[in-house]
Automatic annotation (TrEMBL), chain A:
Keywords, in A-Z order: DNA damage, DNA repair, Metal-binding, Nucleus, Transcription, Transcription regulation, Zinc, Zinc-finger
InterPro entries the record matches: C1-like_sf, Ssl1-like, TFIIH_C1-like_dom, TFIIH_SSL1/p44, VWF_A, vWFA_dom_sf, Znf_RING/FYVE/PHD
Zinc finger (C4-type): 298-315
Keyword Zinc attached: yes
Gene Ontology cellular component terms for the protein in this record: transcription factor TFIIH core complex; transcription factor TFIIH holo complex
Protein localization: Nucleus
Family: Belongs to the GTF2H2 family.
Broad class of where this protein is predominantly found: nucleus
Full protein name: General transcription factor IIH subunit
Species: Daphnia magna
GO molecular function: zinc ion binding
UniProtKB/TrEMBL annotation, chain B:
Family of this protein: Belongs to the TFB4 family.
Keyword field: DNA damage, DNA repair, Metal-binding, Nucleus, Transcription, Transcription regulation, Zinc, Zinc-finger
Chief localisation class: nucleus
Subunit structure: Part of a TFIID-containing RNA polymerase II pre-initiation complex that is composed of TBP and at least GTF2A1, GTF2A2, GTF2E1, GTF2E2, GTF2F1, GTF2H2, GTF2H3, GTF2H4, GTF2H5, GTF2B, TCEA1, ERCC2, ERCC3, TAF1, TAF2, TAF3, TAF4, TAF5, TAF6, TAF7, TAF8, TAF9, TAF10, TAF11, TAF12 and TAF13. Component of the 7-subunit TFIIH core complex composed of XPB/ERCC3, XPD/ERCC2, GTF2H1, GTF2H2, GTF2H3, GTF2H4 and GTF2H5, which is active in NER.
Stated name of the protein: General transcription factor IIH subunit 3
Coiled-coil region list: none
PANTHER family: GENERAL TRANSCRIPTION FACTOR IIH SUBUNIT 3, TRANSCRIPTION INITIATION FACTOR IIH TFIIH , POLYPEPTIDE 3-RELATED
Role noted for this protein: Component of the general transcription and DNA repair factor IIH (TFIIH) core complex, which is involved in general and transcription-coupled nucleotide excision repair (NER) of damaged DNA and, when complexed to CAK, in RNA transcription by RNA polymerase II. In NER, TFIIH acts by opening DNA around the lesion to allow the excision of the damaged oligonucleotide and its replacement by a new DNA fragment. In transcription, TFIIH has an essential role in transcription initiation.
Species for this entry: Daphnia magna
GO process terms (BP): nucleotide-excision repair; regulation of DNA-templated transcription
Length: 404, 299
């Protein structure tokens, strides 16, 4: 579905697939081992697909999520309703998004009654977005959506973002119609001029204009099969995209608020920096209270903040902590996929989890660098979550090569 | 089974022992025995104390030095060694005791025989990665009626190794994702990286002032599960230094330059990113206004 272009024939036009022929009984007449094998293969295939990333990624992303809130979102083909299902998945998405794209920003729009409404402005605080999504649950879905209005609105928000950031819009579109005030082709053109990538996930059936928008702006267009597929489609958007052709790269000045007053050799950290002060993020709200010595001081102007990452309200410096950046480094130093091997007698245990290899398991996986053997589950765990080969990290030579 | 209250809690502690300082401690005498023996005795006693708390509790011990990492318990040898248990001693304790002593002995002897003088860092990152893989497997294999409360306890005495930064960070974020708490008990030296790890995963970092009292510290601070730590009085949390080290000189920076493509950190402006080979445009729209404003204020 992902790389569907106009020349590709539709599913119903292609030949008949005999899916049941892939399943064969083993010697004992059981299907179990065969099914396990198929499942494992599917898992690996999915993981392999994810790996085809370019090294130059748009790590700083500005993304607007447009949620359709028109009458059709009350349909119950996704349980409990389309709208609630989408909101629930978006919560997961927001969480994962900030996990993988730590210094990116996200905003949420809805569209109903032929207009578009802003729910959250572009911001890097995931708590706010999740709260807003939870409040949206009580929203009534009515009227028709407007694709053009929401795209224009998102575009206005994204236009002024710095040129080095990747600007994106993700539309979750349930309706088959849209009510637009003008020529949507003009909108598509200006989206393209502004280097904004629009990806659309259709919740009903394929709509031509959506296909066209996605194609012209370099995004993807997918139509869901069921709620599991929808989850997969939404989570596919979490991975940072490859750098778009005309995006400028730039070095961005950032502040790393130091914590410890002892190790600092500079003059910036004096006792005044740890004196109680109001944090600038909550100073306008009524609940603001004097903070103790905890908190982060902007190294440029000394303003106090209670959490990171944040953009300094005083001097505009982006303040982050080192682990925020480190969270995305595994994109830079990806591990090589392990090679599938037939099981050999000499290695009786999985190197990573110390599991005893059993007869039924025919395939084991070997790291090219350190030649350690791991089991299938560890292979997936290492590739999807850990991003570090325990074998390489346990070898004095390869452990040091890993970090340039 | 649906009722969450009825799920049996299984507490898994994976102890990661850094055996690199063993040489240093081997020479320090203490009450007729060496400090090294005292440390290992303490660790085994702690492991057994954890197993004794509840019958479902699980234990894993992984050791590392600068040459390799090794599962001590459960041991990977496969051959069941004969172990002598003293009359009345619980079988499992005797097994832990013999496995750990045997494994540690092998590890340290390998290190001793191979005496090239190049001093390399301890492979703590690799050992922690293996601990997480093990925890992941136990979690997977556990039946639905059990609920795993995993944590990793790092007992180390060596300095930070900048070369393993990536491994450490990957381990910390994986632990955070999998709800694994990382606790850390440091002897002799302090470790900034492990401090960050404990802070990220919500664990306890403790730098013990006296190595001889290791067991007391372990039993006092690290034996209670993280859920009941709020009820006991623990050493105050250390202030964590979250400043970044630049990629070019491995120097801690307050204000740095970050590549927009790959997020590498540099301590001064350059025209090309050394990590991803991106060339930067020299007009810096986001930066110039900030500078001019500052200058205007000074004038």
């Amino acid at each position: 579905m992902a790389d569907e272009d106009e020349t590709k024939e539709y599913r119903w036009e292609s030949g008949y697939e005999k899916t049941w022929e892939a399943i064969k009984e083993d010697d004992d007449g059981l299907l179990e081992s065969n099914v396990a094998d198929l499942v494992a293969r599917a898992k690996r295939k999915r993981a392999a697909l994810k790996d085809t990333g370019a090294i130059q990624l748009g790590m700083m992303r500005h993304l607007f999520v447009v949620v359709d809130a028109s009458a059709c979102m009350f349909l119950q083909d996704l349980k409990p309703t389309r709208f609630l299902c989408v909101l629930k998945l978006l919560e997961v998405f927001v969480h994962e998004f900030f996990d993988l794209n730590p210094i990116s920003q996200l905003g949420i729009l809805t569209t109903k009654m032929k207009r578009s409404e802003q729910i959250t402005v572009l911001a890097g605080n995931q708590k706010k977005h999740i709260e807003a999504l939870q409040q949206l649950k009580d929203l009534s879905c009515e009227g028709e959506p407007s694709l053009q209005n929401s795209l224009e609105r998102a575009m206005n928000g994204l236009k002024n973002m710095p040129a080095y950031s990747s600007r994106e819009i993700l539309v979750l579109f349930g309706s088959l119609t849209t009510c637009d005030p003008g020529d949507i082709q003009k909108t598509i053109k200006s989206l393209k001029d502004n280097n904004i990538r629009v990806s659309i996930i259709g919740l009903a059936a394929e709509v031509r204009i959506c296909q066209e928008i996605a194609k012209k702006t370099g995004g993807t267009y997918n139509v869901l099969i069921d709620d599991h597929h929808l989850k997969e489609l939404i989570l596919n958007q979490v991975q940072p995209p490859a750098v778009a052709g005309s995006m400028e790269a730039s070095l961005v000045k950032m502040g790393f608020p130091g914590g410890s007053p002892i190790v600092n050799d500079g003059t910036s950290d004096s006792s005044a920096d740890h004196a109680p002060a109001y944090c600038l993020c909550h100073i306008e709200s009524e609940t603001s209270s004097l903070m103790g010595p905890n908190g982060y001081n902007c190294p440029q102007c000394g303003s106090r903040y209670c959490e990171l990452p944040v953009e300094c309200k005083q001097c505009g410096l982006t303040l982050v902590s080192a682990p925020h950046l480190a969270r995305s480094y595994h994109h830079l130093f990806p591990i090589k996929p392990f090679i599938e091997r037939a099981q050999v007698r000499e290695t009786t245990h999985c190197f990573a989890c110390a599991k005893l290899f059993v007869e039924a398991e025919t395939n084991v996986y070997e790291c090219e660098n350190c030649n350690q053997i791991v089991c299938l589950d560890c292979d997936l765990f290492i590739r999807e979550t850990l991003h570090t080969c325990p074998g390489c990290a346990s070898d004095p030579v390869t452990a040091q090569m890993k970090t340039n | 089974m649906e009722d969450k209250e009825e799920r049996i809690e299984t507490s898994l502690v994976a102890i990661v022992i850094d055996a690199t300082p063993a040489k240093k401690f081997a020479s320090q005498p203490l009450d007729g025995s060496s400090m090294m023996n005292r440390i290992f005795d303490s660790l085994i006693a702690f492991g057994n104390a954890h197993l004794m708390q509840a019958s479902h509790n699980k234990l894993a011990i992984i050791a590392c030095n600068s040459k390799s990492t090794k599962f001590l318990y459960p041991s990977m040898d496969g051959t069941s060694r004969s172990y002598h248990n003293r009359p009345g001693q619980y079988d499992m304790f005797a097994k832990v005791d013999s496995d750990v002593r045997h494994g540690l002995g092998e590890l340290i002897l390998n290190d001793m025989t191979d005496n090239d003088s190049t001093k390399s860092d301890s492979l703590l990152g690799g050992a922690m990665a293996r601990a997480l893989s093990y925890i992941h497997r136990v979690q997977r294999e556990l039946s639905l009626s059990h609920q795993l409360k995993p944590r990793v306890l790092v007992v180390s005495g060596s300095c930070d190794s900048a070369l393993q930064y990536m491994t450490f960070m990957n381990v910390f974020f994986t632990a955070q994702k999998e709800n694994v708490v990382i606790d850390c008990c440091m002897m002799d030296t302090d470790s900034g990286l492990l401090q960050q790890g404990c802070d990220i995963t919500g664990g306890q970092y403790l730098h013990i002032p006296s190595v001889a009292g290791l067991l007391e510290y372990l039993l006092w601070v690290f034996l209670p599960s993280p859920s009941c730590r709020s009820k006991i009085v623990l050493p105050p949390p250390t202030k964590v230094d979250y400043r970044a080290a630049c990629f070019c000189h491995h120097k801690l920076v307050d204000i740095g330059w970050v590549c927009s493509v790959c997020l590498s950190i540099f301590c001064k402006f350059s025209i090309m990113c050394t990590t991803c080979n991106t060339e930067f445009k020299l007009n810096r729209p986001a930066i110039v206004p900030a500078k001019s404003k500052k200058r205007a204020r000074i004038e």
